[in-house]
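User: Please predict the structure of the protein below. I'd like the answer in structure-token form so I can feed it into my own downstream comparison script.

Assistant: Understood. Taking the following sequence of 603 residues as input:
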Amino acid sequence: MGELQEKLKLLPDNPGVYIMLDKDGVVIYVGKARVLKNRVRQYFHGSEKPEKVAAMVEHIADFYYIITGSEIDALALENNLIKKYKPKYNILLKDDKTYPYIKAHTKEDFPRFSITRKIKKRDGKYFGPFMGGIRCKDILDVAASVYNVRLCSVTIGEKPKKPCLAYHLHRCLAPCAHLCTQEEYGERVKKALAFLDGNYEEAEKILKEKMMQFAANEEFELAMEYREKLAMLSKLKLKRITSLNRCINADIIALKTNNLYSAVNILITRGGIMQGGSNFALEDASLSDADALTAFIVQYYSAHEIPEEIITSEYCEKELLENFFLENFEKKVDVVFAKQGVRKKLLEMAEKNAEEYLSKSIDKIKHKDDMTKNACARMKEILGLSRYPKRMECYDISNISGVDKVGSMVVFSDGEPDRMSYRRFKIKTVEGANDFASLQEVLRRRLSKLGTEEESRFPKPDLIIIDGGKGQLSSVQEIFDEMHIEGIDLISLAKREEEVFTSFSDESIKIDHRDYVLKMLQRIRDEAHRFAITYFRNLHSKRNLASVLSEIEGVGKKKQLALMEKFGTIDKIMHASLQELCEAEGIGEELAKRIKFYFEEKL
């Protein structure tokens, strides 16, 4: 930390980009600053930091910086470095879908139209993205049918080519065959561009005329095709926002955060028509929502069409972004802070979508990660394990007074149950109710698979968990020593105090009951117990029910018969309430309690 403090003193007052490194020299965060000295020092000094920032600062071992001519240059460089290094703590866009655009290749002498999912700077005009049940193919089909523009990629040269089928179907003017002039084709392109911009009236009129003409000529199949095209146009028109000026091409961007994760929703409007929306999950270590939203906008528009207007929240860096688009894309973009009217309503709609995505999708996904993979990684640190416990096996023994002793092995992979790998063991060599000896038999049989042809079915685990305390752990450790087992961590979880015992410490480890590590250990322990009991019940149902009941003090032959007549199976007796047990003939409250206690203690 001493070296870092010295470097902090030497930071300049210039704008620039700073790059944070971990102990291995890996880039973990890239940021931009108006004044490098002030911004970088914030990470190491000042008030208490948000959890996500504090987590990053803990891993900073070094940093360096690059001075730029302006904050706008810093913003552009930051974006490039994020793409290059994909730092762990920067926002990385995770789009829920990739939507298509229609591209007009306007740089060509005879512009063609195509579908694309990638946007390249200054090589044509883009329309979209199209979503919400609108297919680019259908829109291009209308453009070809109505305006006869070409959809092919044939090179148009000095020598005329033979016209293709599209020409004969009146879907192209065939400029490749020199059957139209560049001016004639250019007029059609202008109308097609206006159509793609949202001017549907002329196209709708021409489609209706053609549909009626085909119907009058009794060419009903062709008439049906044009009716379907009209239906698609109607679907597009329904997306028009009546109170929004048709000349407005705007993206509405809203960010919502829960201080751990963030979500962004973008609503796309073109020519006053709502094209649809898209959601993004963000993971960031930014100090503010303004930083997160600004970084998102810069990353997003490096790969998407830039609109004339961006409607967003007032904490966004308006002037910086407008200058960034002008200098880097030579495009004037108005960043509008929506405070009233239809723009405000659109922003509220985007905010609602971002909130919904955050609560229903991101939180759910991240919560699952916290309970599984993240808990496994944290367990390695808390318990001092030698490796990340990708494959965990947990063992439990179940029996009633030594009758039908069974063992279970459940497997969790990356913190989630791998039920196809569960195994059952019927205890063969142990007499009476000796859980320690039973555990030893089960582990000896299981570990004997290692290094044999059966290891493919029984892969080597990273961690073995025993249901029990220090005694159970010691009994299994004996098997480890006897069989010279290495490369597998061993722990046990004691039920009463929920203490964790490890094979390399005499002291138990107590984990906070709210910690996901303990919750995961409880989950795998309870699953092993459930799996063992299920097997035990299956075995026990094959035995004489009376032989089990006779072990309970006070339950003679008459009472055994009464219980069997009322419940029929041991499983139903085990799950019966006190009141239900008392309903059996001759079973009073005291005996019912004794029966209930017997099964609870034994299982």
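That's the full token string. The mean pLDDT is 81.
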